[in-house]
Amino acid sequence: GAGVSQSPRYKVAKRGQDVALRCDPISGHVSLFWYQQALGQGPEFLTYFQNEAQLDKSGLPSDRFFAERPEGSVSTLKIQRTQQEDSAVYLCASSQLRNYGYTFGSGTRLTVV
Amino acid sequence: TQLLEQSPQFLSIQEGENLTVYCNSSSVFSSLQWYRQEPGEGPVLLVTVVTGGEVKKLKRLTFQFGDARKDSSLHITAAQPGDTGLYLCAGEDYLHNNDMRFGAGTRLTVKP
Fold it and tell me: The domain containing residue A66 runs over which residues?
């Protein structure tokens, strides 16, 4: 596609609920990244994929966070048993080469109530 | 502690004024990127600087990479309301798997 597409744009979850956030990267982009952006802050790294391989998941804040990219294109970020501190904007980005310059999606704003 | 420190955190100016925002670190970077983010959207890449001392111009925006590749600045000439947004710098973190790390950003408001 022309850009990185994320869905849903907004998600309200009750505390304890599981959520799944979807990212459709630019076609042909090898690298895919997930970031978490709290209000008034810069994006914080969560995880990185090269094709279907998750090469770095050091930024995932807890074992409740899980990401996958099974066919090397679409990626899903799953958060289990959501907590209020998970409320943030979750950004997905893709690039042809790692750290060459990312194209970001518009993000999913998650609110846990 | 932020890997990249951006200053000022907030900046509010009148249309037509000039401004400079800064991105500083104690780490050396092979490259730095600058992004602009508008409310409700993802960051949009403005420029990548790779060579120490490099200066890049993008219309009214001038980006400079420090000689030691530890810092960068963004200068905007004759700011316009359309320049309003969050300006973020980002660089590779060699201590953490070369992950691209972002500063907290400078929130710029240009008043008409």
Answer: 5-112
Summarised one tens digit per residue, pLDDT across range B44-75 is: 999 999 899 999 999 999 999 999 999 999 99
Q: What is the CATH number of the domain that holds A72?
A: 2.60.40.10
Per-residue model confidence (pLDDT) at position B1? 57
Whether residue A8 has a cis bond before it, omega within 30° of 0: yes
Contact A104 B42 (CB under 8 A): yes
Q: A91 to chain B nearest CA, in Å?
A: 7
User: Given an 8 Å threshold on Cβ–Cβ distance, is A56 in contact with B41?
Assistant: no
What residue has token string 């391989």?
A: A53
Is A91's CB within 8 Å of B42's CB? yes
Half-sphere exposure of A45 (CA within 13 A, CB side): 26
Amino acid identity of residue B105, one-letter, is G
Q: What is the pLDDT of residue B93?
A: 76
Q: What does each C-alpha distance from A10 to A7, A14, B51, B107 come to in angstroms?
A: 8, 14, 40, 23
User: Looking at residue A99, what is its pLDDT?
Assistant: 66
Q: What is the pLDDT of residue A54?
A: 96
Give the architecture-level CATH label for domain B5-111: Sandwich (2.60)
pLDDT of residue A82: 98
Among B97, B106, B94, which residue's Cα sits nearest to residue B31?
B94
Domain count, chain A: 1
